[in-house]
Design goal:
heterotrimer; A alpha/beta (290); B alpha/beta (262); C alpha/beta (235); A: alpha/beta; 3-stranded antiparallel beta sheet; globular; B: 262 residues; alpha/beta; 6-stranded mixed beta sheet; 4-stranded antiparallel beta sheet
Chain lengths: 290, 262, 235
C-alpha cells in the first residue's frame, strides 16, 4: 500500500502497523492498562507526538478525515506539521472542524464539542505512568498496577491538600479507568477529565519514547481520584470567553500588548469560531467593538 | 503483656534453609511466634539473622523449609506460596516493618502526615479529614509534635525519623512486626526513648514482633524469648534473661561476656 | 505434691561449664531438697559463693536447672520450672512468683512510678488501682514525690533498692524471692521493709530470702536452709 508520494500508506510499513494494532486491541480489551509496543523511530523528535502519530498511522484509513490539535488549536507548529505529515503520507482529508473529523489527534486538550460514537481520539502522551513521580522503579509500578496497590496515588493528592489546602494538580490529573487501572489522562487539563467518562468515542493513548499504548473503550467509566471531603472539581473562570462569550469552556490567557493588556479566550479555537459564526459575541470581539 | 499459653502460633517457621552458592545464609531454622510475643534474634554480623528475617516475611525464598502465618480469621497460610496480592495486603495491614535505616521505610519526600496516612489510603480510606486526624493521633503516640505533620522527614532527626517509621507502620494496627536493628543508627540517648516507646506500643497493641539485633540490651528490654544464631544456625534458644544470664553454648557465652561495660 | 505445699525443690544441682576457659566445669551444689508452704519464710544461709543467689535464680527460671526438679503450684497446676516452656515461666512470673533482685534493671527513660506500677498492670489490675498502690508503697519507702516522675537509673543505691522493693510488692504473688532486700538501707527503711515482708508473710505469701543482716533475719524468718550442706565435694 503506497501512495503516489512514494511513502508507504501513513508512513509506517504494514508489519509495524499490524504490531501496533495488536497492541491497540489488547489495550482496548484491558481498559487503562499500559501495553508495551515496539515504538519506531519517526521523522520527528520525541516529544513532538511520535506515540500519537504511530497510533494514528495504525488506525487511519483512506476514508478518514483527520483533525490535529495542540493546546486546543489547529494552527500551532506541532498540529500543522502532523496534519501535513498525514496529508502527504496517507493522502487523507484534513479538517479544523471537530464535527467533521473521524480521527482527532490531540496534545493537551479534548475538544469542547462532545465527541461521537464514530470518532477516535488519539492522545499524545509524554509519560504514561501515573505513579512514576511517586515510585521511580518501573518493576515496582508494574507490580503496583497488577495488585491494584494504589494507596500511593492518594498520598500525592493528600500532599496537595496538606500543602495547598486543595488538590492543586490541574493537569494530568489521575483517573481510574473501568474501576481497575489508574491511568494518566496525558497532560490534558483536569477540566477535560469529565469528558473522558462514558465518552461515546474510542480514546487511544500513545507514548512513543516510553513505548506504551493504552486505551479507553467507548462508554467506559472514568473516575477522577479524590477524597470524600475534597471532591474532584474542574477549573472555573471569573470571565467568559472574550471573543464568543462562552461561560463553560477552558480559557487561555492571551497577552494583547506590552502594557498589561490581556484577555481570556476559548482554548478550543474551532469551537470558539463556530460559536462566533453562530452569532455569539464576547466582550472584546470585533463585532462588539463596532 | 499477653498470655501465650493457649493460642495457636501466629508465625511458624519449619526448617528454613537459605544458601547463596556455597555460603550458608541460614540453615534448618525452626521457630514459633505467638500473638503478643516478642522474639529476639541475636548474633554477630553475618550470622544469618537478616537472611532469616527476609525469609520470614517472604522478601526472600528459602531453598527448603516453610513459613506459615495465621490470618486474622484463623486460617494458616504458607507465606511463600500465597498470591502476591494477598502478601501485599498483609504487608500493608497485618505486618509492620521497622528498618534500621528509616530511609528504607519512609518516603522521604512525602510529609509526615502523608507517610502515616499511606497505609490508610492503601486500604481504602477516602476521607482526608479522617486520615489527617488519625495521622495526628499516631504522631502523638510516637511523640512527634502535631505541628510537624506537614514537614518532610528529611527535616527530622534520626530518632524522629525512626519514630515516624514506627507510626507509619502501626497505623493499621498490625499483628506482627519485623524489626531489623531498630535502634541501630541512633545515639545512645535516643535509643532508650525508642526502646521504651516500642515496648509500650508492643504491649498496648498486643503486637507480636521479631527483633533482629546485635545489641543485647535491646534484646533484653524488648524480647520475651531469645534465639542466638551463629553461621546461619540457631545455637541456643530460651527465655531472654535465661539466655543472657546463664548462656549454655560456647558462642552465647562468648557473646554475653564480650559486652563492654561503661 | 502435698496440697499445702506451694514449692517443692527436689534433688536440685547446678554446675556451670565455662567454655571460654577450656570448658572448665564449676559444680556449685547438688541434691538440694526442701518444701515451702504458704506463710513460710525460708532463709537461704551459708557463706558467700555457696550458691544462695544461684538457687534463687534457678527457682525464678533465670538460671537453668540441669539436675532435679523445681515444682511450683501455679493456679491449679503444678509446674516443674526446670522443664517448663518459656511462655509458662513468663506466666508464672506474672501471676505466681515475684523476685526482688539486688539490682534494678530498667530502661533509662521510664518514670519511677511507671516502673513500680508495671507488675500490677501486668496482672491485669486497673491502672487507677495500680497507681494508687504504687504511690502508697513509694511513700512508705520514703521515696520523695518529686522523684516519682524521674527514671530511677540516676538514684542512689539505697533509693534504687527501695524502688525495686516497691515494684516487687506492687503486685501480690503467692511466692516471693528476695535477694538481700535490705542490704543498702538505713535503719529506718530497713524497719519498713521488714514490716512489709512480715505483713505479706502473715497474709500467706511464701517467701524465700537471702538476708545477711542477722537482726532482719530473726524478725522475719521461720526456717533456714544451710546451703553448705549441699556443696559438691571435690572428687
Amino acid at each position: 500500500m503506497s501512495t503516489d508520494t512514494g511513502y508507504n500508506f501513513a508512513y509506517l510499513d504494514e508489519q509495524t502497523k499490524r504490531m501496533i494494532r495488536r497492541a491497540i486491541l489488547k489495550a482496548i480489551a484491558v481498559p487503562g492498562y499500559q501495553v508495551p509496543f515496539a515504538s519506531r523511530e519517526m521523522p520527528m523528535p520525541y516529544g513532538w507526538g511520535t506515540g500519537g502519530v504511530q497510533v494514528t498511522a495504525s488506525v487511519i484509513t483512506r476514508d478518514d478525515t483527520l483533525k490535529v490539535i495542540d493546546q486546543g488549536s489547529d494552527d500551532t507548529t506541532n498540529a500543522v506539521s502532523i496534519r501535513k505529515f498525514f496529508a502527504k503520507t496517507a493522502g487523507v482529508a484534513t479538517t479544523d472542524r471537530t464535527t467533521e473529523a473521524s480521527v482527532i489527534q490531540t496534545r493537551h486538550r479534548i475538544p469542547e464539542t462532545p465527541l461521537k460514537a464514530s470518532q477516535i481520539i488519539v492522545y499524545q502522551v509524554p509519560i504514561p505512568e501515573p505513579l512514576r513521580f511517586l515510585e521511580p522503579r518501573e518493576t515496582e509500578t508494574r507490580r503496583m498496577h497488577a495488585l491494584e496497590d494504589y494507596g500511593l496515588m492518594h498520598v500525592k493528592l493528600y500532599e496537595d491538600i496538606a500543602r495547598h489546602g486543595h488538590i492543586a494538580t490541574t493537569y494530568a490529573y489521575p483517573v481510574r479507568v473501568n474501576d481497575r487501572y489508574v491511568s494518566d489522562p496525558s497532560p490534558t487539563p483536569k477540566f477535560d477529565n469529565p469528558k473522558m467518562d462514558n465518552c461515546p468515542a474510542l480514546q487511544l493513548f500513545g507514548a512513543g519514547r516510553e513505548k506504551r499504548i493504552y486505551a479507553i473503550p467507548p462508554y467506559t467509566k472514568v473516575q477522577s481520584l479524590d477524597f470524600d471531603d475534597h471532591p474532584f472539581e474542574v477549573q472555573t473562570w471569573e470571565q467568559d470567553c472574550a471573543l464568543c462569550g462562552a461561560d463553560d469552556t477552558f480559557l487561555d490567557e492571551v497577552i494583547t500588548d506590552d502594557r498589561g493588556g490581556r484577555m481570556f479566550v476559548c482554548s478550543d479555537s474551532d469551537y470558539c469560531r463556530e460559536r462566533r459564526d453562530g452569532g455569539h459575541v464576547g466582550a472584546q470581539s470585533p463585532e462588539a467593538a463596532e | 503483656m499477653t498470655d501465650f499459653s493457649n493460642a495457636q502460633p501466629l508465625l511458624r517457621a519449619d526448617r528454613v534453609t537459605r544458601t547463596f552458592g556455597r555460603i550458608v545464609g541460614c540453615a534448618d531454622v525452626s521457630l514459633d511466634l505467638y500473638p503478643g510475643e516478642v522474639l529476639g534474634i541475636v548474633g554477630e554480623s553475618g550470622s544469618g539473622k537478616s537472611t532469616l528475617l527476609r525469609c520470614l516475611f517472604a522478601a526472600d525464598t528459602p531453598d527448603s523449609g516453610t513459613v506459615a502465618y495465621t490470618l486474622r480469621h484463623g486460617e494458616t497460610r504458607n507465606v511463600h506460596t500465597m498470591l502476591d496480592a494477598e502478601r501485599r495486603m498483609l504487608m500493608r495491614t497485618d505486618w509492620a516493618f521497622v528498618h534500621q535505616n528509616p530511609r528504607d521505610g519512609l518516603r522521604m519526600h512525602v510529609s509526615a502526615g502523608g507517610n502515616v496516612g499511606e497505609r490508610l489510603m492503601a486500604t481504602g480510606e477516602r476521607h482526608y479529614g479522617n486520615i489527617r486526624a488519625t495521622a495526628g493521633e499516631w504522631l502523638d503516640k510516637v511523640e512527634i509534635a502535631d505541628e510537624r505533620i506537614d514537614d518532610l522527614p528529611v527535616t527530622f532527626s534520626g530518632g524522629m525519623q525512626q519514630r515516624l517509621q514506627i507510626a507509619r507502620n502501626l497505623v493499621t494496627r498490625p499483628r506482627l512486626a519485623f524489626m531489623d536493628e531498630p535502634t541501630g543508627g541512633l545515639d545512645v540517648s535516643v535509643q532508650a526513648r525508642l526502646l521504651d516507646l516500642l515496648r509500650g506500643l508492643v504491649s498496648d497493641l498486643g503486637l507480636a514482633a521479631i527483633v533482629v539485633t546485635h545489641d543485647l540490651a535491646v534484646a533484653r528490654h524488648l524480647s520475651h524469648r531469645l534465639m542466638v544464631m551463629k553461621q546461619g544456625r540457631v545455637v541456643e534458644t530460651g527465655l531472654t534473661d535465661q539466655v543472657l544470664d546463664d548462656p549454655q553454648h560456647p558462642y552465647s557465652q562468648l557473646l554475653v561476656s564480650s559486652i563492654l561495660r561503661a | 505434691m502435698e496440697n499445702d505445699v506451694i514449692l517443692e525443690v527436689n534433688g536440685v544441682g547446678k554446675n556451670f561449664t565455662l567454655h571460654a576457659q577450656g570448658g572448665a566445669r564449676l559444680d556449685v551444689f547438688q541434691d538440694v531438697a526442701f518444701t515451702l508452704a504458704p506463710g513460710d519464710c525460708l532463709a537461704l544461709a551459708g557463706p558467700s559463693g555457696i550458691g544462695k543467689s544461684t538457687l534463687m535464680r534457678m527457682i525464678y527460671g533465670n538460671f537453668r536447672c540441669p539436675l532435679g526438679e523445681i515444682n511450683l503450684r501455679h493456679g491449679d497446676a503444678v509446674i516443674d520450672i526446670a522443664r517448663a516452656h518459656p511462655h509458662r515461666i513468663l506466666d508464672i512470673r506474672r501471676h505466681t512468683m515475684g523476685y526482688v533482685s539486688q539490682f534494678l534493671r530498667v530502661i533509662p527513660r521510664v518514670a519511677t512510678l511507671d516502673v513500680v506500677m508495671e507488675p500490677a498492670l501486668a496482672q491485669g489490675i486497673p491502672a487507677g488501682e495500680a497507681r494508687a498502690r504504687a504511690e502508697v508503697l513509694l511513700k512508705q519507702l520514703r521515696i520523695p514525690e518529686s522523684l516519682w516522675p524521674l527514671s530511677p537509673v540516676t538514684f542512689s543505691g539505697g533509693e534504687q533498692q527501695r524502688v525495686n522493693l516497691a515494684r516487687g510488692f506492687a503486685a501480690r504473688y503467692p511466692l516471693m524471692l528476695l535477694d538481700e532486700p535490705t542490704a543498702s538501707l538505713d535503719a529506718e527503711n530497713r524497719e519498713t521493709v521488714v514490716d512489709m515482708i512480715r505483713s505479706a508473710r502473715d497474709q500467706g505469701t511464701a517467701i524465700i530470702g537471702i538476708f545477711h543482716d542477722a537482726q532482719t533475719r530473726a524478725k522475719i524468718v521461720n526456717r533456714a536452709l544451710d546451703m553448705s550442706a549441699f556443696a559438691v565435694k571435690a572428687a
